[in-house]
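Hi everyone,

Forwarding the result from last night's run.
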Amino acid sequence: MSTVELKTQIHEYVEQLQDDNFIQAVYAMLDTYVTKQQDTIIGYDVNGNPKYASEMQKKYEEGIEEIKRGEGKSLDEMKAKYGI
């Protein structure tokens, strides 16, 4: 089956769906896929999983906010924790 035929068949299946929960699941899956396709991979973790720019930007911003709230740890605290 060609890509055009597959897309047509998918549209037909979606139009036949009655279960709202399943429709939401299909939407979430497609939304995640499309969003990730547009997001740049900036690296990988030690397990080989991609790290996306939008996710990392959010983590960095959260970290900065934690520091501003005084939630960071000093170098001495980290050395003590890890016995360095």
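Strands lie at 41-44, 50-52.

Cheers,
N.
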